Amino acid sequence: MSRRDEIECWLTDMDGVLVHENQALPGAAELLQQWRDEGKPYLVLTNNSMFTPRDLSARLLASGLEVPEESIWTSALATAAFLKSQQPGGSAFVIGEAGITTALHEAGFILTDTNPDYVVVGETRNYSFEAITRAIRLIAGGARFIATNPDATGPSAEGPLPATGAVAALITKACGKEPYVVGKPNPMMFRSALNKIGAHSENTGMIGDRMDTDVVAGIEAGLHTILVLTGISDQTEIAKYPFRPDEILKGVYELLSPTPSSLTRSDLPRSTRHAQLGARG
Predict the structure, then answer these.
(1) Catalytic status, residue 13
(2) Most buried of 10, 24, 38, 41 (most Cβ within 10 A)?
(3) pLDDT in tens, 135-145
């Protein structure tokens, strides 16, 4: 029996694993249905802190994937959970969109630009010079610096866009302070996801498409790691790293269990074929 047979819960990345440019990847819908049929708890993870789980659920549905919002875990939710554990009822100045502001509100945080406990930088397409300047001054004045994720760029139809990591680097250069980054590859992102579904690392699998975030964080969190080649990683990329995932698959379709209806006559045991022939006679 392989360790995969012992997996009772699953964590999976979204982009490059389940979807690519708003199109469901082969086997993604069937794998989600398989987990539902088997009663296996799962979470779809994303480092993108821009959208709420409700937004992402709708976007996935438009791609042909049915994922309820309670089965989505973002770096914004992980950041809010972390800050709530650190300072319940705290305050924050936020650079970001509804994903992070909603998560912090629901965690009981007050959003303010006056003497906040934290400056939180997340994903947005509307970075303003004024907001970045405010963040630099607040951090210099003693606010603790948090970033939802380290991704320097994000994808778009026109090409790469500057993302959270790039803006956080700009702030770091100006104020001399590094942020604490909650999202992948921080294994805290996975541990908070495990807590959400009541899972244990020894019987949970993680599916991702990036060696530098999904796989390394999965290894550090003690998960069974699976790298799929439908995202940014290929064999050349894998060879650059001193660690390896437990499994490398062409895509999530390789995780599908064969169903009786998918068996051809030649797949059936010989005794079964003879019995069928006898029944026809």
Answers:
(1) yes
(2) 10
(3) 999 999 999 99
The secondary structure of residue 177, as a DSSP letter, is -
Name the strand (E) or helix (H) holding 12: strand 9-13
Q: Name residues whose C-beta falls within 8 Å of residue 152's C-beta, 6 or more positions apart in sequence.
A: 162, 163, 165, 166, 169
Please state the pTM of the whole predicted model: 0.87
Start-end of H helices in 69-181: 75-86, 98-106, 129-140, 164-175
- Nearest alpha carbon to residue 46 among 59, 33, 34, 36: 59
**Complete DSSP assignment for 159-172:** S-EE-HHHHHHHHH
Residue 246 annotated among the catalytic residues of the structure:
no
**Per-residue pLDDT tens digits for 228-281:** 999 888 899 999 999 999 999 999 999 998 865 444 444 444 433 343 334 333
Max Cα distance, the chain (Å): 88
Among residues 15, 117, 151, 214, which one is catalytic?
15
